[in-house]
Design a protein that fits this description.
Helix content is about 40%, strand content about 15%. It is of the alpha/beta class. The protein has one domain (about 15-125, about 185-285): 2-enoyl-CoA Hydratase, Chain A, domain 1 (Alpha-Beta Complex), CATH 3.90.226. Strands 1, 2, 3, 4, 5, 6, 7 and 8 form an 8-stranded mixed beta sheet that branches. Strands 9-10 form a two-stranded antiparallel sheet. The model is unreliable at about 250-265 (pLDDT under 50).
Length: about 290
C-alpha cells in the first residue's frame, strides 16, 4: 500500500495520473519470440490496462513507426477508438521520430496529435515491394516448376517474369486500400485539414508543415503537454509489456512462447525470419532518413 493512501483524502495532494502506451516499430502481424513488430496482439493488453485505469481522464500514446501492415494498423486504430468510447477517455497522441503510413493511420485514433518540430508525418499511401529472381535462377541453372489449380495462384511470383496483368491487379488493390486510408484521414481530421494536392500522394512532412496542413494539432512533447493540460503534479504511468524468456517485450506468457519454439517453429527458423524482418525493418526506417 502506498503511504499517501494512509493520508485522509481531504489532505492529500491532488494529482492526475495519465497512462502512457508506447507504440513503436514496424507494423506487421509476425509475433515470433525474437520479433519486435508492432501489432494488435502485442499492444492489446497494454491498451486495455491503460484505458481501464480509474480516475484517468485521458490516455497518452507515444507513436514511433514508419508503417507496415494496413490491416494491423487499422486493427490497432479501431481498438483504441473502441476503448476510448467505452471508457469515455480522451486520447492524446505524441509522435516521436516518425508517424508515417500505418504509423500515421494509428495516430488518427487520437483526439489530438502532437509532434516534435523535427518529427516526420504523413506518407498517406500504399506500397508493395518485391524482387525479381527469374534471371538469377537461369544463370545458376535452376528450373522453376510450379503446378496449380487456378490460373492466378502464382500471381507476382518473384521467380517468374513480371506479368503486366498481375501488376495492374495489384495496383487496383492498392488503390482500394488507399481509398480506405484517405477516408480515415478525412473522417478523423475533418475540417482541420487544409486542401493540398500532395496530401494523399505518399509525401511526408516535418512537424510544422504537418500542423499547417492540419495533419496534427500542435507541436510539443508528452511531458510538457500533459503538465499544461493536467497541472504540474501530473503523474505519468508508463504501461509496460510483459517480458519473454529472451527479454523481449511481449503480450503473451513464456509458456506459450516456449510451445512455439519447441513445437512447429524451430529457433533456427525463427532466427532466419528475424533476419529477414530486420532487413525489411531497416528499409522501412531508412525511407525517412532514420
Amino acid at each position: 500500500m502506498k503511504l499517501r493512501n494512509l493520508i485522509p483524502a481531504p489532505l492529500r495532494k491532488k494529482t492526475t495520473t495519465i497512462p502512457v502506451v508506447r507504440l513503436g516499430g514496424v507494423i506487421a502481424a509476425s509475433n515470433s519470440p525474437l520479433s519486435r513488430n508492432l501489432n494488435l496482439a502485442n499492444v492489446a493488453p497494454m491498451l486495455e490496462k491503460a484505458f481501464t485505469m480509474k480516475h484517468s481522464p485521458a490516455v497518452a500514446l507515444a507513436v514511433n513507426s514508419p508503417g507496415g501492415s494496413p490491416v494491423q494498423s487499422r486493427l490497432i486504430y479501431t481498438r483504441i477508438r473502441e476503448l476510448a468510447d467505452k471508457h469515455e477517455k480522451k486520447v492524446l497522441v505524441f509522435v516521436e521520430d516518425v508517424a508515417a503510413s500505418g504509423g500515421y493511420m494509428i495516430s488518427l485514433a487520437g483526439d489530438e496529435i502532437f509532434a516534435d518540430e523535427t518529427s516526420i508525418i504523413g506518407s498517406i499511401g500504399v506500397v508493395s515491394a518485391s524482387f525479381g529472381f527469374n534471371k538469377a535462377i537461369e544463370k545458376i541453372g535452376v528450373e522453376r516448376r510450379v503446378y496449380t489449380a487456378g490460373k492466378n495462384k502464382v500471381s507476382l511470383d518473384p521467380f517468374q517474369p513480371e506479368n503486366e496483368k498481375d501488376v495492374e491487379y495489384l495496383k487496383k488493390l492498392q488503390l482500394e486500400i488507399h481509398d480506405v486510408f484517405i477516408s480515415m484521414v478525412k473522417s478523423s481530421r475533418g475540417e482541420k485539414l487544409v486542401e493540398d494536392e500532395d496530401m494523399f500522394t505518399g509525401r511526408f512532412w516535418t512537424g510544422p508543415s504537418s500542423k499547417n496542413l492540419g495533419l496534427i494539432d500542435g507541436l510539443g512533447h508528452l511531458g510538457t503537454v500533459l503538465k499544461e493540460r493536467f497541472g504540474e503534479k501530473v503523474e505519468i504511468a508508463l504501461i509496460q509489456p510483459k517480458k519473454s524468456l529472451f527479454g523481449r517485450s511481449s503480450s503473451v506468457g513464456i509458456n506459450s512462447q516456449l510451445g512455439d519454439i519447441i513445437g512447429t517453429n524451430s529457433l533456427g527458423a525463427d532466427l532466419v525470419d528475424r533476419g529477414i524482418d530486420k532487413i525489411e525493418e531497416r528499409f522501412a526506417w531508412s525511407r525517412f532518413g532514420l
